[in-house]
Amino acid sequence: MDAETDFFCGLLELHYGKKIEEELKIIADKISWAKGWPDKNSSFWNAEAFMWKYKIDWKTRALIKEELSFLDGKKNLDLGCGSYSYLPSVGFDVSEKMLLFNENCIQKVTGDLEKGLPFPDNSFESVTAIFLLNYVVNQGSLFSEIKRVLDEKGIFVAVLYSGKINGWQRKKEIFCFSKEEWALILEQNGFLVKCYEKENLFFFICRQRKLIK
Questions:
Q1: Torsion over CA: 58, 64, 68, 69 (sign)
Q2: Which helix (H) or strand (E) holds 125?
Q3: Is the pTM of this model over 0.90?
Q4: Angle at which helices 3-15 and 41-52 pack, to 10 degrees?
Q5: Disulfide-capable partner of 91 in 105, 112, 195, 205 (CB 3.0 to 4.6 Å)?
Q6: Could you read off the pLDDT of 140-194 as tens digits, one per residue?
Q7: Using the 8-state DSSP alphabet, how is residue 11 labeled?
Q8: How far is CA 177 from CA 93, 128, 157, 174, 181, in A?
Q9: Phi/psi at 55 (nearest 5 deg)?
Q10: In this predicted structure, what is the pLDDT of residue 212?
Q11: % the chain with pLDDT above 90
Q12: Are the beta carbons of 170 and 164 closer than 8 angstroms?
């Protein structure tokens, strides 16, 4: 078997609990898109791309799609979109492999959320971040960038899982807060927030506070 096949097989074994991380690191360094795995973020998420579509069941995806349906027709930026977007979007992700699998992007942009967004001011009517915020270190900077790229009536929607993510995904998790704590963080960063929980998911519908009369 070649290095990529060995690596894919090893990832499956890893997700089933086999302790082979050190062996996989050696194999990963032979693959251009996986080099530096799992410490390098882009390499970590490139590897996850091949199994990501199996990790969220169709009922959960259908629920999220329904809850986001009020954004249909808007020019949307999907941050950390991964291999699936819930509405036609400009997709922005650190993983080129994730973007490769995403069939609902009208444009695909590879980049690092920690380093700003490469889009003009006021260029989107909505921004979505699905299962993303708990992986972002510089949240304040990201929220400032979201407000910058949104037009004056723009809407920011974040969705998070209310439970504990699995052990391997938790390797990259930075924050784990309650619904109330996330809402407070968003409010402290200049958003007026409507939040609710449905089927073990947190939904946050946000508008820029300065626009609310």
A1: positive
A2: strand 124-130
A3: no
A4: 80
A5: 105
A6: 999 999 999 999 899 999 999 887 655 556 667 788 889 999 999 999 999 999 9
A7: H
A8: 23, 19, 17, 10, 6
A9: -90, -15
A10: 46
A11: 56
A12: yes
Q: Encode pLDDT of 38-68 as tens digits.
A: 888 888 887 777 666 556 778 888 999 999 9
User: Average of pLDDT values for 19-44?
Assistant: 87
The answer to whether 76 and 89 have CB atoms below 8 angstroms apart is: yes
Report how far residue 170's alpha carbon sits from residue 175's, in angstroms, rounded to the nearest whole number: 10
Q: What mean pLDDT is predicted for residues 204-210?
A: 89
- What does 146-203 look like in DSSP terms, one character per residue? HHHHEEEEEEEEEEEESSPPPTTGGGG------HHHHHHHHHHTTEEEEEEEETTEEE
For 113, half-sphere exposure in the C-beta direction (CA atoms, 13 angstrom radius) is 27
DSSP secondary structure letters along 42-104: HHHHHHHHHHHTTTS-HHHHHHHHHHTGGGTTS-EEEET-TT--SSSEEEEES-HHHHHH--S
Amino acid (1-letter code) at residue 191: F
What is the arrangement of strands in the sheet containing 150-161, beginning at the earlier edge strand?
105-110, 89-93, 76-79, 124-130, 150-161, 201-208, 191-198
